[in-house]
Structures are given as C-alpha cells and as structure tokens.
Amino acid sequence: MTATIGLDELNSQSALQDRVDRKYLIKASEVSELLFRLGDTCRVLEIEGFTWFAYRSTYYDTPDLDCYLRAGTRRRRRFKVRTREYLATDHRFLEVKTRGPRKTTVKDRLARDEQTDLISPDERRWVCEVLTFRGIANPPVAELEATLTTNYSRRTLQICPPDEPVSRMTIDLGLAYSTPGDNSGNEIALNGHAIVETKGGPRPSHADHLLWTMRHRPIGISKFGVGMALLNPQLPDLKWHRVIKQELAA
C-alpha cells in the first residue's frame, strides 16, 4: 500500500513554486504501471481519505489571443493567467505563470473567496504588478477575458527516493475542455490519455527516469494551448501540432 502525505506537510517540504516542469502524455491504461514502478519511493497526497481530486481551471486571454500566440511561438516573455478551483477542499486561487531563468516555471498565486470567472479590478491590478515584476512590460491585463475551462481529476505525489532531492509529480485524468459561457454542451474530453508532470530541479528526477524506461519522453504539451486549438479548429495549432495530430490521434 502506497504511503500518504498530508497537504500541509507536502507544501512545507516541496511547494516548488519555482521549478522545472517536464510533461508527458501517456495512455490512461499505463497509470497503474507507473504507480507500481514508483513503489515506496513516493507518497500520495491524501485529504480526508481521498487521493484523487477534482480540479477546475479557467484560462484568460485577450481578444487577439495574445497569450495563446506567445505560448505557441515560444516567446520568452510569455505568461498564463488562470483561476483554479480545488473542488475537494473548496479553495480557489488566481494564478500567474511565467518563465524564469534556465527554463524554470514561476507561479504566483492569490487566494480567492468566491467561484467566479470574472476577474475583479483589484485582481487585475495584482496580475499587472506580478507580470511587471516578472519582466513583462505593458502586459495587456485590462483586455483579459475568460477563454477556456478545463476539468480533470489529479493525483499528486511526493517523489522521495533515497539520496536524491525531493520532487513532485502529478497525474491528470479525465481532462475535458469547454468554452466559458457556452451552454451548447460543446466539450472535448481526452479520456484515453493521462498528462503526467514532474516538478523539480534542473536535473531529471527519479520519476523522469522511470518514465524514460517506459519509453516516454518530455513533450511540449500545454492544457491551455491544446485545449484552445481543439475547441477552435480555425486557429493555428502552432507548437502543439505534433501532440494533436499524432499523439492524441494514436
């Protein structure tokens, strides 16, 4: 039986707001094998007896899709703005993700009191301050509007092999995309796949090496980018072309 870890302990030992992320797209049927291979080198996040948790995120972009185009063309000063709701704990955050030195991902977050896709004036000021501090000049914060919603289930693991740095790994299953405010039922689900993300230092973690032995390599997948391209076929799929046309079609 896999050992578990509580949320407070996980955050105190491995919050990793400034980290290197490596993403993998695997078959949902391979998740059990991955967990078996990890064995006692990991601890699973447990909250009130649960180890899988429902997430809801809404991403924001300008009418000209500035964030999408920056991400898809690998611009150095790209960023993402999203709200994230942890449905199991009823916690909500506004988050800003930017690129740090040496390909690290930097995440800033602000707690929210209510579930809404609207960003308040105070929240917009906070987003602007964060982006300016992170080196993005004249960010188009006033133009941001809800563009994409994702729903999925996540398992979070602390990877703690002997004599190696502690890292984290997440496994996302049942990813479904929809457009905020669209009540037509137009939803795209990726039920046959799982997105695995390792979060650690510059050197590949124990989990990365296990994934490599399973013949998986890091892939340029973004929930935001892929979701926008799938829901809006008229958009160029940019750097996510291989993921959409080959990996997801397999």
Helix content: 10-25%
User: Can you tell me the CATH class?
Assistant: Alpha Beta
CATH homologous superfamily heading: VTC, catalytic tunnel domain
The percentage of residues in β strands lies in 35-45%
The side-by-side strand order for the widest beta sheet comes to 2-7-6-5-4-8-9-11
Rg (CA only): 18 Å
Q: Remind me, CATH topology?
A: mRNA Triphosphatase Cet1, Chain A
Structural class, please? alpha+beta
Instruction: Give the number of helices.
Output: 7
Low-confidence stretches: none
Q: CATH architecture, please?
A: Alpha-Beta Barrel
The topology string of helices and strands comes to EHEHEEHEEEHEEEEHHH
Q: What does the average pLDDT come to?
A: 91
Distance between the first and last residues' Cα: 33 Å
**Outline type:** globular
Biggest β-sheet, characterized? 8 strands, antiparallel, barrel
User: What is the number of independent domains?
Assistant: 1
E-strand count: 11
